[in-house]
Amino acid sequence: MRRLSATPPAKRPAAAEADVLALTPSGVQILRAGVLCEPHVVVRVLGVFRYMADPALRRVLPEHVARHLDRDVFDLLVTDGHMKLKCMLSPARNALVWRQRVAAQSILRVRAFDIVHDGALDADTAPRAFCVLRDLDVLSPEERPPRARRRVSLGGRPRSSVAPPTAEDDARLAFHSRVHAREHCALPLAGGRLYYLSLLSDDCPLDWEPASASGLAHCSVSARYVEPWAEWSRRRQFCVDVFREGERVLHSLRDAVRWASAAPRGRGRGRAPAPRLTGVVRYKSKLTHLGDPAVASAFPFMFHVVLSDREQAIEVAFFGSMAARYVLVVEEGDVVQLEGYDAALDADQSRRLFVLPHLSDGRLWHVPEKYWKLLEMTRILPARASNDASPTADDLAEHSEPGALGLWVQPTVVTVRALEAWRTRRQRTRREERSFFDVVGVVTFAGRVERRRAATVSAFRWIKLVDRSVEAEAVVRVDVSTQPPAAVAALKAGDVVLLTRLRWSSGEGLDASVATTSAFSRVLLNDDLAPFAGVAECALARSWAETLLVQHRVAYAAENESRLEGPVVSALEPTAPLPSSVAALVSGLRADPLRLRDIARAADAVEALECKWLVVRGSLRDLQRRPVGLSSDAVVVVVGDPAANVERSFRARPHALFRSSPVPPSLRDATASEALPFLKLLAPSILERLAAETDASTGGSALSADAIARHLQTRSREDYGFAVSASRAASGALTLTVHAIVPLE
């Protein structure tokens, strides 16, 4: 490994401001050659691609770069308007990506970079070199240069009248080098990994969303992955005959369990060949990324299915190349045959798992429908599911194990009304439920995709939906990792959605009141529900949605949020109640408790596309309504901190996902219409106390916002708890909103 460091000259006359604002005409050649003869190089970003560090990458990078390697590594596809080049972003600058400062179409001013030579990964060809961007600035919108098309006169400035380049223009730009696949394909620049990851989830490879890899060459499988096994196949292979050649015997899953128990462990001369299995795919898990920065693994993906026949159910796991071959092919309800598998015990040595290891000779075939009746007559498969009435919440609550209900993957649809009764019973009995359930309905609210940064990258999205019971809205947290991010991002208000294999959240307080997706969940929208037309709830949901949408309109907000607005939805309340005390807020919302003076520090830690709950302890100074437009006002809460002699104003509104406290009728009648929005922010105990005081003091006059504030200040000398959500948009703008005011105890 050799390294060439490029830094600007020590002394150089100051350049004109106009020179700073233009893309460097030969910027790609400078970055590739490693000789920085200008104070900086200005380039435009076409794409940002993430992958995981591994031991091979640590060996390649120079020590001053490698010491910043933690987990994530980013490749940037940049252009100077003439050519494009893949560069590596120094791991010390990863925060620029997570805070959305470096993104597609960002303009970078590169001040220093390294050229790293690596021939270890391409032993049969010439040594390969790549650029590591070490010191750079992101230009603000006011500083950005005019973006010119590729055809620019040499030495001339792009005129402001030239139209900005389109995605097609960027795709036609030539790569500086196409000698190595890693320089122009969807492959990391360095290291041993053979895939890029989504920016929102570790479990979603970029290959699932071809549009996300725009700008990179879509090559043959062998060029993209070096080894041909890693193709994400979408082609089903059907068996010619359900009998193995030379046999006229159909084996049940029980035969496979006996084979695994009796035969010697591992492959060897003393082990009989595994019987060919036939069964129905009962459950299919999400694709899981098993990568570790300290472990060298080119393709660490896996998924598993639960395969069942008339009497038995087993779990089959697919690793590495087998996951790539079958994850997009196998679906729940498929009748399949399996051979070439092996058997192993799980980590606890308590459960037997059937596996198709990476690079194994295992095979999976789909069974044509013409053989299904034969398999039913030979009692290998159960009879297909009938279109009976869907089970109730009581039916599901009696079974704690998935798999206790019927076979052939019929949705176990629970109505929103039954879901609310089930949730109430769970809170009363504190019973831990492990059964799965499905919900079908119309999406009334789809929140933005929110990213969580932890040991792994994951993202989620809050949605609300309603069905024909139209009494309340169910709240569901949809994790991006259960589906390709594009499928979750496509959710919008007005869609008919079937969410399968949901489960109750395992948390406490508020978290235990919502349903969440599981490793087996699927998100089916609109026309994707066609295969379930025989299920009464699914068929009725689609026809009822047409009636509902006639009375409503879809309103869109920033960050891809959308909601239904109309008479039916406005009368509904979500099923999840808002916590009513500071202790409940902290535990239920997993919030950080802090004083008002510390809120700026906590808000600075919020990254782009992230939402963090804060419980701010302070005194209520004022309630106000301020005009924000021609037809609307903002509800404002002024919070003070007597100990630090500071105060701050927050916009306030009830959270879209949680039920606001019921206002006593006497208090509602005594309150002026412009002050009613403030009552929705108060906890039940505060409302009851306010109602009692209002009956004795108002004397028939309408209660204003100022009067409500005075009542709360007079009655309570101690502080309140304010539930604040801190969220940062993709643009970097920070929003702090108060959603509830609760007593300290």
From TrEMBL:
<protein>
    <submittedName>
        <fullName>Uncharacterized protein</fullName>
    </submittedName>
</protein>
<dbReference type="InterPro" id="IPR040893">
    <property type="entry name" value="RADX"/>
</dbReference>
<dbReference type="GO" id="GO:0003697">
    <property type="term" value="F:single-stranded DNA binding"/>
</dbReference>
<feature type="region of interest" description="Disordered">
    <location>
        <begin position="147"/>
        <end position="167"/>
    </location>
</feature>
